[in-house]
Amino acid sequence: MRPPLPPELMQAVLLVTALVAVAMLVALVMQRALRRSRLRRRAALDARFRRLVLESSVAEDDELEGLLARVRSLDEREHDHIARMVFPMLRDVSGEAGDRLRAIARAAGAASGLVDAAHHRNPLVRADAAEALGVLAAPEALELLLELAVDRDRHVRTVAIRALGAFDEPRAVGRVLDALAASSGVSPSVAATALLQQGAAASDRVLDALLDRDPGVRRGAARVAGLLQVPGAGKTLALLVTDSQESVRLAAMQSLEQLPVREAVPALLAAALKGGTEGEAAARALISMPATWSSGALALIRTEAEAGVRRAAGLPRLGATA
Amino acid sequence: MTWLRDALEVVFSVLAWPSAIFFLLGNTSMLILILIAARHFWRHLQRSDHRGESAMAASPMSPGVSVIVPAHNEAAVILTSVRSMLDLRYPDHEVIVVNDGSTDDTAELVRTAFSLVEDDRDVPGRLPALGAIRGVWRSASGGVPLVLVDTQPSGRSDSVNVGLDLASKELVVMVDADSILDPDALLSVSMPFADDPAGVVAVGGVVRVANNSRILGGRIIELRMPRELIARIQVVEYLRAFLLGRTAWSDLNALILISGAFGMFRRDVLIELGGLDVDSIGEDFELVMRIQRWIRDGRRDARVRFVAEPVSWTEAPSTLRVLARQRRRWHRGLWEVLWKYRRMLLNPRYGRLGFVALPYYWLFELVAPLIELAGIAVVVAGLLVGAVEPGAALLLLLVSYGYGTLVTLVAILVEEAAFHRYERWRDLWAIIAAVLLESFGYRQLTAIWRIEGWWAGIARRPQVWGEMTRTGFTGVEESVRPR
User: Do residue A155 and residue B16 have CB atoms under 8 angstroms apart?
Assistant: First the structure.
């Protein structure tokens, strides 16, 4: 009995398969060898410049210029490496050391070309530019970031909105609030975190945003209002407990834990008695309120709410000994 | 014997072409999945610098996560495990240990080590529990986000359901007590939920093999290839099918399987769906199928996603006996779930799920071992009675397995380019050797066990779980395993 294909053809297929397999093995080994060699080069540069970067980050004013001059005198490859070292550090360092690190990055030429990069055809280059603009806080950063926050690429918009968290100008706050809308394509947690980072500067706008027509904006604003302790937001949050959107109601209940208002008690009690996830959130909001406001509601929850809500309210089960 | 020879000639001539096409299609499908995954990794890695994990780790906006840890006789590892889970880098998570009727002092160890006090609050009871709850404990001050539940023995699925019932966060993740988690596991896997809170309902994470790796304080500090060949081949299988295959299915929006060892879900959805099916052998597969049906039947704008970063590490079976038991159970679970949801197959209502993913799982996961073994049996019998030319048979086998090996090499190449977690040269050689040796004995053995599991499912034999005998890192925690 003969095989389904002529032996010559099968031999040819086998030969091609073997050749491709060998080529892939070679590619595998080459890939690893190249990567290790690149890592070794980077480690050597790290070792060479670590001291310079760390010294610069804690240098006195009169020493700094000399250290920056040393950075400026390096070649392009070394500049790239220093920028690559400093950028991750800037994500975790703030204050004076952060300012110093930014100065080092600028001395290494990280700020040059950002305007061009922000308008580059490749969205990855634009995203890199947005990230750099945020961490370097360059003078031209705000205008460019406002532009990149409405970029045609969703990923670029997300990076730009995250970077705008470092700016507390009204236009930056407005752009971040716009990004809370579902249609923005920006991750709601990224936009809300940026808003939170903008802090008190965002308070007034957050208060207005609580009544925005877009549920995404209302939800984000509701969540941020509590964390920022926005003055005067409590009463609006109480209204949002009965919002048409579940996610907004939940965000409002969460924020009422940090910003309790008496007006919210009836709506929270009603939600608690309905049960489910919202009931649990309502119960948690109620127990964060002064006992004089919530004792009546908690008494009703004890007798009428479902077990999950009673648990969320921290109430002992009936018959349990204290 | 002439009649046998003639019969085998007929069988061979009838089966040769369909078998060849089947092998070609199976391997080509896998190759396509690997290429889709490669494209995903390429884009993902290009953007990895901008993912903002540090920002998420510090943000109070990140969704809360309840980590549910079912534990049965895990006294040897439970404290290290709980500590490492409490130490995960995440702004808002709690750990719920469900002691599933352990006969050792698993519960007592946790209670004492964390000074837990009895929790006198109600148990919600939203999900039916088989094992009666004997007690719930929590941190006295509330400072440690840890809950301990002690239940009568009722199995892993029921324990997870008990944990789910007591969970208080928006998201839940189920992990085994002896799993080792990456410090950023929760950050990585919760990212799709944070990006699309209304749409994403479940996210699978990558589970990888940690045999022979260096482990300290419940963390992998040096990843190494296992010493045993069968465990090494499983590393290759995990990379090909779990990492690359599932990444591709996720990209195709047709992911139907998330590993039970690490999956994150929206708690409200799991409660609505009734939690894990305690009667199912493939409970993780069954749950994701139920979620996918719930999405499609309700015409919901919801998705199941997969995250390719390594998040969880497990010990793969290192003996044939344990591997056989695992594969029989997996295949039986596969059959039972595919059969249970057979109405979704080729059903237009389920889109790619019904027309691409499920046919793939039926053909190239469920039926494949049967066809492979049948093909080998016919060729061997044909050789014995002289119905098949030895040279031709050898060529056919070499071409079939050669193509399969090539596909696996592509998978290894993609992994090396994207994650390259095995840093030592000797580990690379070990992976390559495992790829080349997989087709010689291992594939055929696993095919036999898979058919046995399938048959046990069809015959509805009672499932015997047995102990998952672990020999690896659980016993040598805090140390380097001897070579």
Answer: no
Q: Strand pairing partners for B205?
A: B307
Contact with chain B for residue A306, Cβ under 8 A: yes
Chain B CB contacts of A18 under 8 Å are: 402
Q: Which residues contact B127 (CB under 8 A, 6 or more apart)?
A: B161, B162, B164, B165, B271, B274, B275
CB contact under 8 A, A158 and B56: no
Instruction: Specify the range with the lowest mean pLDDT, choosing from A285-299, B8-22, B222-236, B301-315.
Output: B8-22
- The CA distances from residue A305 to A254, A311, A312, B216, B268, in Å, are 19, 10, 11, 46, 18
How is residue B454 written in tokens?
Answer: 């399938």
Contact call for B412 and A308, based on CB within 8 A: no
* Nearest one of A291, A305, A284 to A262, comparing CA atoms: A291
Chain B interface includes A311 (CB < 8 A)? yes
- Alpha-carbon span B210 to B78, nearest angstrom: 18
Please check whether residue A68 touches B, CB under 8 A: no
Across the interface, do B395 and A21 touch by the CB < 8 Å criterion? no
Query: Residue A92: how many CA atoms within 13 Å on its side-chain side?
Result: 7
Asked if pLDDT for residue B335 goes beyond 60, the answer is yes
Task: Report the SS3 class of residue B150.
Answer: strand
Which DSSP category does A184 fall into?
G
SS3 call for B313: strand
List phi, psi (to 5°) of B241.
-85, -40
Average pLDDT along chain A, 322 residues, taken 10 residues at a time: 68 88 93 94 93 87 87 90 87 82 88 86 92 81 94 94 92 95 92 93 94 95 95 95 96 96 96 95 96 95 94 84 48
Cα torsion at B369, B372, B373, B377 (round to 10°)?
Answer: 170
- Residues in contact with B440: Cβ distance below 8 Å, sequence separation at least 6, in sequence order: none
Does this model's pTM top 0.80? My answer is yes
Q: For the segment B131-146, what is each residue's pLDDT rounded down to a tens digit?
A: 889 999 999 877 899 9
Which amino acid, A225? A
Alpha carbons B260 and B281: distance in angstroms, whole number? 11
Show residues of chain A in contact with B120, CB under 8 Å.
316-317, 320-322
List CB contacts (< 8 A) between A190 and chain B.
Answer: 52, 55, 194-195
List, in sequence order, every residue forming a beta bridge with B219; answer none if it has no partner. B216
Q: Residue A111 and residue A127: Cα distance in Å, rounded?
A: 14
Q: From chain B, pick out residues whose CB is under 8 angstroms from the CB of A227.
A: 60
What is the C-alpha separation between A90 and A87, in angstroms, rounded? 5
- From A263's Cα to the closest Cα of chain B, the distance in A is 25
Residue B238's Cβ-side half-sphere holds a number of Cα atoms within 13 Å equal to 24
What the block records as the tokens of B60 is 């109070």
Supply the pLDDT for residue A138.
Answer: 72
Angle between helices A265-274 and A291-304 (to 10 degrees): 20
Q: Which chain B residues are closer than 8 Å to A276 by Cβ?
A: 268
pLDDT of B179 over the 90 cut = no
**Contact criterion met (CB below 8 Å) for B63 and B32:** no
ipTM: 0.86
Q: Does A152 touch chain B (CB under 8 A)?
A: no
